[in-house]
C-alpha cells in the first residue's frame, strides 16, 4: 500500500522535462517533490543546464524502475540565474511555497553562501552538486554536497601538473570577487607553498571582465613555467586566448570551474595541455559511468560533463536514502528523516565510489557533510579533457 502524503504538484516554473512547461501532468498522490535551484540563464548557465540535465536523467531512471518504495520523484526546478539574490528568492519559494522535501543547488558557491542558511534555518536538506568552496557545509547540519572540495582536488592536480611539465615556478591569476575563485586561489597558494613551487606573479580580475592583456603582460615578464588559473570557464577561456596572442605557450593549471566543453568551444586549440582535477572523467570506464554517458547522450544528444555527472549521482544518493525513510506526510518530520538517512549512503555512481564525511565544525556550529571521493587529473587533448597518464 502506498503512503499518502501531501506532496502534491503545484503549478511550477519547471518540472523534470524542462523550462516553462505549459501542460503539467496530473498530481500523483505519492509524488516526492525535490526542489532544485540552478542557474539556467546567465553566465553560469553552462553549469546549471548540465546540472538540470543530470538531475532529470536520474529522476527519470528512478521513476522508470517504480520510483522509491513505489513513490515517484518530481523535480521542481527554478532558475536562480547564478545570482545570490535570486538564489535566496528561489530557496524561499521552493521551501515555503512549493513545500519540497529538499533542495538541490544552487549552482555557484557564491550563491550557496547566501541561500543555504535559509535551508539550515528551516531544517531542510540542501544538496550541493557543484559547490566546492571551503566553509559551505560548515554552515549547518542540513547541508550536504557531493562536489569534491577544491581543497581536496587542487593539491593532487598541482602535483600531477608539476610532474607532467617539469614545472619549477608558476604565476597565478584569479577572480577576486567570487567565493569559488577566491577559495581556489587560497588553496592553490597554500598548495604551492607546501610543494615549494615559487610564484612569480599574482594577478586578479573581476567577474565579467573580458580584457586580460594587462595582467598577462605582467605575468609574461616573469617567465613562469605554467599559469595557475582559479577562474570560471568563460573568463578562463578568454585569458588562455589572450595569453596565446602574446606569444605565451605555458600550460594552464585550473580547478573544476574550467571543466566544461565551453573551454574548448571558446579557446579551441589554445586550451590544449590545460591540466585540471575532477572527481569525474568520461574516460573512467566503470559500468556505472558508461551507462550514464550512454543514457545522457541518448536523451540530450550531447556529451555530459562533470556537473551533469555529479547532479546525476546526487539524485541517486537521495533516492537511496529515501529507500530507508518511511514518509509520514508530516513535512517537517519527513525532512528530518531524510537528513538523518543521508549520511550513511554509499554508492558507486558515474563519478565513482562515493561516501559522505562530516565537515569540520566552525564557530561552534553543527556542520553538514562533504564528499569523500578521489580526485582524477585530466589534461586538454584533441578538444576535450582526457585522463592524464
- N to C succession of SSEs: EEEHEHEHEEHEHEHEHEHEHHHEEEEE
Number of beta-strand segments: 17
The shape is: globular
The CATH superfamily of the largest domain bears the name: Response regulator
Secondary structure class reads: alpha/beta
Helix content: 25-40%
Oligomer: single chain
**For the report, how would you describe the main beta sheet?**
7 strands, mixed
Q: CATH topology of the largest domain, which one?
A: Rossmann fold
Unreliable runs, pLDDT <50, ≥5 residues?
1-29
* Relative strand content: 15-25%
Number of domains: 2
Over the alpha carbons, how many angstroms does the gyration radius reach? Answer: 21 Å
Architecture overview:
The chain is of the alpha/beta class and 389 residues long. The chain has two domains: 14-148 and 284-374, Response regulator (Rossmann fold, 3-Layer(aba) Sandwich); 150-278, 3-Layer(aba) Sandwich (Rossmann fold). It has eleven helices and 17 strands. A seven-stranded mixed beta sheet has the order 9-8-10-11-12-16-17, with helices on both faces. It has a five-stranded parallel beta sheet with strand order 4-3-5-6-7, sandwiched between helices. Strands 13-14-15 form a three-stranded antiparallel beta sheet, covered by helices on one side. β11, α8 and β12 form a beta-alpha-beta unit. α2 runs parallel beside α3 (109-121) and α4 (150-165) crosses α5 (179-194). It starts with 13 loop residues before the first strand and ends with a strand. The relative contact order is 0.14. Residues 1-29 have low confidence and may be disordered.
